[in-house]
Amino acid sequence: MPVLIGGFGNWLVPLMIGAPDMALPRINAFSFWLLVPSVIFLLGGGKIEGGLQTGWTLYPPLSSVKFSSSPSVDFGIFSLHMAGLSSILGSINFLTTLLNMRGPESRLDRMPLFCWALGVTTLLLLL
């Protein structure tokens, strides 16, 4: 998700709508740099006292203190929160760029399908 939406989106959306860059570059950078500690916390949580041990879904009964008393689950959940915040910030940036930075001759109905798909995806992510 971060590579496909964040990576390709940051590269292709300004090209497709005729914008010089994304609308909010500092939020864009902050969104990217939140992913680095998120990955570190997720991998670090896997190394503490036998790992997450909750399955790939982080099933709530298995992630309670009764079944997993180590801080590894806390690291995993915090990692997901950081990745979620990164996605929300990236979505705000994409929607702002798509709505406000189009060229003067570019209307919403003339935007490429990739931009529409990214806009709808980011709107759903915000909702």
UniProtKB/TrEMBL annotation:
<dbReference type="GO" id="GO:0046872">
    <property type="term" value="F:metal ion binding"/>
</dbReference>
<keyword id="KW-0479">Metal-binding</keyword>
<dbReference type="GO" id="GO:0006123">
    <property type="term" value="P:mitochondrial electron transport, cytochrome c to oxygen"/>
</dbReference>
<dbReference type="GO" id="GO:0005743">
    <property type="term" value="C:mitochondrial inner membrane"/>
</dbReference>
<dbReference type="InterPro" id="IPR000883">
    <property type="entry name" value="Cyt_C_Oxase_1"/>
</dbReference>
<keyword id="KW-0349">Heme</keyword>
<keyword id="KW-0679">Respiratory chain</keyword>
<comment type="similarity">
    <text>Belongs to the heme-copper respiratory oxidase family.</text>
</comment>
<dbReference type="InterPro" id="IPR036927">
    <property type="entry name" value="Cyt_c_oxase-like_su1_sf"/>
</dbReference>
<dbReference type="InterPro" id="IPR023616">
    <property type="entry name" value="Cyt_c_oxase-like_su1_dom"/>
</dbReference>
<keyword id="KW-0249">Electron transport</keyword>
<keyword id="KW-0408">Iron</keyword>
<dbReference type="GO" id="GO:0015990">
    <property type="term" value="P:electron transport coupled proton transport"/>
</dbReference>
<keyword id="KW-0472">Membrane</keyword>
<protein>
    <recommendedName>
        <fullName>Cytochrome c oxidase subunit 1</fullName>
        <ecNumber>7.1.1.9</ecNumber>
    </recommendedName>
</protein>
<keyword id="KW-0999">Mitochondrion inner membrane</keyword>
<feature type="transmembrane region" description="Helical">
    <location>
        <begin position="75"/>
        <end position="96"/>
    </location>
</feature>
<keyword id="KW-0813">Transport</keyword>
<keyword id="KW-1133">Transmembrane helix</keyword>
<keyword id="KW-0496">Mitochondrion</keyword>
<feature type="transmembrane region" description="Helical">
    <location>
        <begin position="30"/>
        <end position="48"/>
    </location>
</feature>
<dbReference type="GO" id="GO:0004129">
    <property type="term" value="F:cytochrome-c oxidase activity"/>
</dbReference>
<dbReference type="GO" id="GO:0020037">
    <property type="term" value="F:heme binding"/>
</dbReference>
<feature type="domain" description="Cytochrome oxidase subunit I profile">
    <location>
        <begin position="1"/>
        <end position="127"/>
    </location>
</feature>
<comment type="pathway">
    <text>Energy metabolism; oxidative phosphorylation.</text>
</comment>
<dbReference type="Pfam" id="PF00115">
    <property type="entry name" value="COX1"/>
</dbReference>
<keyword id="KW-0812">Transmembrane</keyword>
<comment type="function">
    <text>Component of the cytochrome c oxidase, the last enzyme in the mitochondrial electron transport chain which drives oxidative phosphorylation. The respiratory chain contains 3 multisubunit complexes succinate dehydrogenase (complex II, CII), ubiquinol-cytochrome c oxidoreductase (cytochrome b-c1 complex, complex III, CIII) and cytochrome c oxidase (complex IV, CIV), that cooperate to transfer electrons derived from NADH and succinate to molecular oxygen, creating an electrochemical gradient over the inner membrane that drives transmembrane transport and the ATP synthase.</text>
</comment>
<keyword id="KW-0186">Copper</keyword>
